[in-house]
Fold this protein.
Amino acid sequence: MKAVRLVTPRHPLELHEIPVPVPGPGDVLVRVHAAGICHSDAHYRAGVSPAGPLPLTLGHEVAGVVKQVGAKVRNVRIGDRVCLHYLATCGACPWCAGGHEQFCATGQMIGKHRAGGFAEYIVLPAASVFLLPAAISFAHGAVLMCSSATALHALRKARLQSGESVAVFGLGGLGASAVQLARALGAATVYAVDLNPAKLALAEKSGAIPVNARTTDPVRTIRQLTGGRGVDVALELIGLPLTMQQAVRVLGPLGRAALAGLTQQSFAIQPYTELLGPEAEIIDVSDHLAREIPELLRLTLEGKLDLGPIVTRTVPLDAGAINGVLEELENFGGATRTAVSVKP
């Protein structure tokens, strides 16, 4: 089968011909139909977030059709349309049993620690495989599995309550989903912060108040718009020290800043005036949970999350095409979300 793989960090991905994986008794073999290209994939290629062992097939947003199931698999059948949770875990340890499988000692992330979805086939444990409703396209189902799922997880960790205000920093795949999901979860007002006018316009169509960080100070602007109070929840989805700092500084009393952007750099805060005095919180966000996927699919089926304006481009299973998208992402450019279309 064809697979686009990372061979050496800081070098382009390569197209290889490798054997089709063989599922074990509790595994599912999926014929990939779509795989989203995430900013994290650019981090793996650049060596910012180490991935391996190499060579490694990247891609952790995956949807397709079941082609083979192990003898112990009961939740899906051959021919089912499915989307894939990004982790392969033991399913039995206290972390897995408690619904926090991201801390499983033997857990492996597809496209980072084990073969991912930039390929014609992928194998995962059955517990990581979810039925994809026919009303949701493969491309949308794939992108739901990371950018939208992480946005939902960030809002849940930030304990967003109905009637509260939200500031979203960064309107890529995560941010565009976060704007819609915040509204779906009852946010009274959503402020959308970015440099890109097209992304700001998309957020405005989704009911957000756009804040152009290229022409204004977003902290000052949002505080003015909130009468000086600040917001209840801020999501940082970019991974820059400046925007992380702004996400904290825009908080009001008892505000919560959920940080999901990846970076190796630190940022400065003023402990008393920015955290202790207002009793504000900084909350770390690491991907998402399998138990959140059914809610995400339900919100999509109800029309509360529409990925039509978000997944704006597809590319073939081709190393050159995928590398081109990754280069755009490294420069914070390109389409809101791009999916690899893997033709059967």
